[in-house]
């Protein structure tokens, strides 16, 4: 191993002379950095590699046996993670997200419009996160959907009992026979998303696995991706597929929240994925149900843990 000695003192306000200037910008930056003498601390490339890979492999080891796996880091999945991880700091929660970026359909409010609408009473959760909003009668508006999802995600990632594996795809479910002759979901089969995308033109690259007592699937409605766990269970004849109904905001949001449940032993489904097994309506760009479905999924998981 190689060691690089730290020769410079840690950066502090006292390390640098603050030049006397009237420029507001210069004042703001010069308070911390003197660009004339500025220099990064030295580094060896292998230090960067080791800093990342050591932690990642430790996480793979730690979370190979998780308590709860959440599939999909959109608005419903991240809300479920936030509630669960805070309620039970003793549980290990792995979030698997196929995309590089988190957020799913929540970086825009709808079409290419930025603000995000949430119907009441989901405003309570937005206050809990400390996000500012405007009130309009029966709903609230957050000025940018990305403000909501990035704030939620940063709060989730700060929690010590959560690991987000992004750019990682759930390719299959692990199932187990139960004592009463039935079957339950007992984990997920994962692969790098880039590998999953190339199964047709590369030789077989076998996947990896995570065991868990409970899986919460939040992969969104069917499309190029999405509804993954529901579709997999349907393919085995374990549950029946009932495709998402047409858009009806009023019916859709109540149905998704109330319907959030363990649809198959070991598998809770939340968010828009639920519409693919319940045939509930599409809701379009209103996100209250995604948030409260995440809350309900967390409660369902806690009930299973506590019984
Ligand atoms: O990348 C997906 C997205 O971030 C991820 N995902 C899908 N399949 C996956 C797999 N493995 C790992 N096999 C996977 N990750 O799941 C996330 C789903 O996020 P989403 O925002 O699509 O779902 P949601 O149910 O949380 O929110 C739905 C938001 C919608 S869609 C809609 C409409 O079409 O009317 N209305 C709302 C509010």
UniProtKB/TrEMBL annotation:
Its cofactor is Fe cation. It is found in: Cytoplasm; Nucleus. Binds 1 Fe cation per subunit. The keyword Ribonucleoprotein does not apply. Pfam families: Thi4. During the catalytic reaction, a sulfide is transferred from Cys-204 to a reaction intermediate, generating a dehydroalanine residue. Substrate binds at residues 76, 97-98, 105, 170, 206, 221, 272, 282-284. It catalyses: [ADP-thiazole synthase]-L-cysteine + glycine + NAD(+) = [ADP-thiazole synthase]-dehydroalanine + ADP-5-ethyl-4-methylthiazole-2-carboxylate + nicotinamide + 3 H2O + 2 H(+). Keywords: Cytoplasm, Iron, Metal-binding, NAD, Nucleus, Thiamine biosynthesis, Transferase. It is an enzyme of class 2 (transferase). Its EC number is 2.4.2.60. Involved in biosynthesis of the thiamine precursor thiazole. Catalyzes the conversion of NAD and glycine to adenosine diphosphate 5-(2-hydroxyethyl)-4-methylthiazole-2-carboxylic acid (ADT), an adenylated thiazole intermediate. The reaction includes an iron-dependent sulfide transfer from a conserved cysteine residue of the protein to a thiazole intermediate. The enzyme can only undergo a single turnover, which suggests it is a suicide enzyme. May have additional roles in adaptation to various stress conditions and in DNA damage tolerance. Belongs to the THI4 family. PANTHER family: THIAMINE THIAZOLE SYNTHASE (PTHR43422:SF3). Homooctamer. This is Thiamine thiazole synthase. The lineage of its organism: Eukaryota, Fungi, Dikarya, Ascomycota, Saccharomycotina.
């Amino acid at each position: 191993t190689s060691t690089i000695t730290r020769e410079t003192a840690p950066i502090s306000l006292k390390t640098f002379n603050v030049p006397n200037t009237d420029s507001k910008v210069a004042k703001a930056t010069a308070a911390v950095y003197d660009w004339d003498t500025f220099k990064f601390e030295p580094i060896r490339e292998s230090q960067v590699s080791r800093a990342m890979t050591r932690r990642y492999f430790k996480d793979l080891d730690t979370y190979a046996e998780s308590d709860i796996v959440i599939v999909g880091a959109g608005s419903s999945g991240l809300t479920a993670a936030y509630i669960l991880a805070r309620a039970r700091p003793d549980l290990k929660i792995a979030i698997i997200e196929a995309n590089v970026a988190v957020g799913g359909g929540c970086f825009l409010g709808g079409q290419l419009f930025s603000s995000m609408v949430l119907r009441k009473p989901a405003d309570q959760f937005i206050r809990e996160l400390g996000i500012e909003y405007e009130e309009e009668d029966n709903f609230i508006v957050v000025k940018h959907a990305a403000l909501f999802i990035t704030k939620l995600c940063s709060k989730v990632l700060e929690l010590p009992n959560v690991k987000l594996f992004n750019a990682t795809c759930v390719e299959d479910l692990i199932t187990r026979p139960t004592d009463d002759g039935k079957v339950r979901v007992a984990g997920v089969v994962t692969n790098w998303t880039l590998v999953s995308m190339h199964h047709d033109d590369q030789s077989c690259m076998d996947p990896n696995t995570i065991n868990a007592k409970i899986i919460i699937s939040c992969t969104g409605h069917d499309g190029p991706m999405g509804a993954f766990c529901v579709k997999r269970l349907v393919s085995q004849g374990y549950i029946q597929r009932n495709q998402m109904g047409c858009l009806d905001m009023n019916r859709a949001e109540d149905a998704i929240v109330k319907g959030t449940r363990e649809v198959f032993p070991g598998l809770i489904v939340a968010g828009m994925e639920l519409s693919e097994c319940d045939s509930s309506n599409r809701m379009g760009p209103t996100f209250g149900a995604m948030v409260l479905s995440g809350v309900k999924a967390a409660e369902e998981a806690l009930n299973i843990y506590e019984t």
